[in-house]
């Protein structure tokens, strides 16, 4: 089949960027379904799912109705980016219990799978790569595979029914039932147990390099309002989606990171008798495991050291503590191996807790946005980092400058501010080695990015928030895609070092 795939898929050229969603349905999706072996009665269009309409639900007529659909398809117009609608088809897959999903705008094709409530991406194809790899896609999506899958499900259900009715017959001592059901199923009726899905890659495993080194990163900018905490939360979530174990430490009395992850310092910590960052810094016997709170949102799991407002009054206590600058570094020493990345979120002011957070770091991430004052602050960030590095016995590089709240429409301002950043980096001693992260990692200025921390979840979880509009969910998907690019860039370029 592979040799003639380009001919079989010639219908892919029947749309243009100006085509409508209906054109994609009629000229791409229906011919594709026919190529996969489905007849006109094997699928339904515009199927009601809650208050919405699913474009295509594939369910061959030869199968009993109770069986869940094998494939659902959501269609967008060619001028729409499909990555902003993954949340939508994910919802359809959960609602219908579909095994597979296909999201397409005619030019790009996103293939997804569902396991329980988790929906993940199998592959994303362009028209070219779909043509090149269509033999594999055909094997997965075709009607023949669907029927084999459904037959296996049927046999498995029959085996469960048989065992259940055997138990019923035993309980009620019904001899008629016993004669009929108390038999072993034939070998060909015994389905193989379904394979357990592979756990999320490297979850609670060693990092990709195979060693136990972790990267302790202080996210630092003495200019407030640059998206520091929002960047910390969502970069951590994106790294966890890539299989990295992440710990977040809130060392800011405002506790924005703590509340941004759905933890109330009063009701969830203090009133329950739990400890927070203040105990870790001031009590010799308090260790990291005594404080860590684990939170989960769908497939994202993060561990958090919460903060508390009382930290704002603890400067005198901290100053009087012997070698307090290294207290957090010492408390983390025995637990670094449990994480790939540890992010510390300090206050913007140059106080004692700020020094403590920098002394614990093996690297610094500097968030900023493209405006004169935040960029001007880069000089002071670099100077502060270099001053702290002088009293450390190990290097503490600035890993890079991450741009947040980026206005994609402001082309002239972007160039002007980018030039200003490079001017500062080139003129400050040591700044020439500090990279400005690539534009694909810049986080767009969107309302949903700034409002989700108040809801207590990372952006990737916005698809489950029923109070958000479709537009907001698409914007959240768009923004989190940039955080994923930032995380991928991080994994590719940042190498673990000793703190």
Describe the structure in your own words.
This protein is an alpha/beta fold and 499 residues long. The chain contains 19 helices and 13 strands. The strands form two sheets. A seven-stranded mixed β-sheet has the order 9-10-8-11-7-12-13, with helices on both faces. Strands 1-2-3-4-5-6 form a six-stranded mixed β-sheet, with helices on both faces. Helix 6 runs antiparallel to helix 7 and helix 8 (228-241) crosses helix 19 (470-493). 39% of the residues are buried.
Question: What is this entry, summarized?
Answer:
The protein is an alpha/beta fold and 499 residues long. The protein has helices at 5-8, 21-35, 86-96, 127-132, 134-141, 143-172, 175-181, 228-241, 256-260, 265-269, 277-282, 315-320, 327-333, 352-359, 372-376, 378-391, 411-427, 447-451, 470-493; strands spanning 43-49, 52-58, 71-75, 100-104, 108-115, 118-126, 215-219, 246-250, 293-297, 300-305, 341-345, 363-368, 398-403. The strands form 2 sheets. The protein has a 7-stranded mixed sheet, sandwiched between helices.
């Amino acid at each position: 089949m592979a040799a003639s795939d380009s001919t079989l898929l010639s219908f892919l050229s029947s749309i243009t960027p100006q085509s409508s969603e209906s054109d994609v349905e009629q000229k791409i999706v229906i011919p594709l379904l026919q190529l996969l072996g489905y007849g006109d009665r094997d699928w339904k269009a515009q199927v009601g799912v809650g208050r919405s309409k699913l474009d295509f639900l594939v369910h061959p007529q030869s199968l009993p109705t109770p069986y869940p659909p094998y494939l659902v398809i959501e269609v967008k117009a060619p001028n729409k980016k499909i990555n902003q609608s993954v949340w939508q088809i994910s919802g359809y897959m959960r609602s219908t219990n579909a095994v597979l999903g296909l999201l397409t705008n005619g030019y790009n094709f996103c293939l997804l799978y569902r396991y329980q409530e988790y929906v993940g991406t199998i592959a994303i194809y362009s028209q070219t790569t779909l043509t090149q790899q269509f033999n594999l896609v055909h094997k997965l999506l075709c009607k023949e595979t669907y029927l084999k899958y459904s037959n296996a499900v049927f046999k498995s259900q029959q085996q469960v029914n048989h065992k259940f009715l055997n138990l019923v017959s035993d309980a009620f001592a019904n001899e008629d039932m016993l004669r009929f059901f108390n038999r072993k199923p034939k070998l060909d009726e015994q389905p193989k147990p379904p394979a357990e899905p592979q756990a999320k890659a490297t979850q609670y495993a060693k990092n990709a390099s195979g060693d136990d080194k972790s990267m302790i990163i202080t996210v630092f900018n003495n200019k407030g309002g640059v998206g520091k905490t929002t960047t910390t939360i969502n970069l951590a979530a994106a790294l966890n989606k890539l299989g990295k174990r992440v710990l977040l430490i809130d060392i800011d009395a405002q506790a924005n990171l703590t509340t941004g992850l759905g933890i109330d310092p009063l009701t969830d910590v203090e009133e329950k008798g739990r400890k927070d960052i203040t105990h870790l810094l001031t009590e010799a016997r308090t260790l990291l495991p005594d404080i860590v709170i684990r939170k989960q949102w769908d497939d994202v799991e993060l561990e958090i050291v919460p903060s508390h407002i009382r930290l704002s009054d603890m400067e005198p206590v901290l100053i009087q503590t012997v070698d307090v600058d290294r207290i957090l570094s010492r408390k983390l020493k025995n637990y670094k191996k449990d994480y790939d990345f540890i992010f510390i979120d300090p206050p913007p002011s140059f106080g004692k807790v700020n020094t403590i957070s920098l002394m614990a770091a093996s690297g610094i991430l500097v968030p900023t946005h493209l405006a004169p004052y935040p960029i001007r602050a880069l000089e002071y960030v670099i100077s502060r980092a270099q001053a702290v590095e002088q009293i450390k016995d190990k290097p503490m590089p600035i890993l890079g400058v991450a741009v947040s709240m980026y206005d994609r429409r402001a082309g002239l301002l972007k160039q002007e501010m980018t030039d200003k950043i490079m001017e500062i980096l080139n003129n400050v001693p040591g700044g020439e080695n500090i990279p400005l992260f690539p534009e694909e990692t810049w986080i767009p200025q969107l309302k949903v990015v700034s409002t989700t921390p108040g809801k207590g979840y990372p952006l990737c979880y916005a698809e489950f928030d029923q109070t958000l509009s479709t537009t907001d969910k698409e914007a959240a998907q768009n923004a989190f895609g940039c955080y994923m690019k930032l995380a991928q860039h991080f994994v590719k370029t940042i190498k673990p070092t000793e703190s």
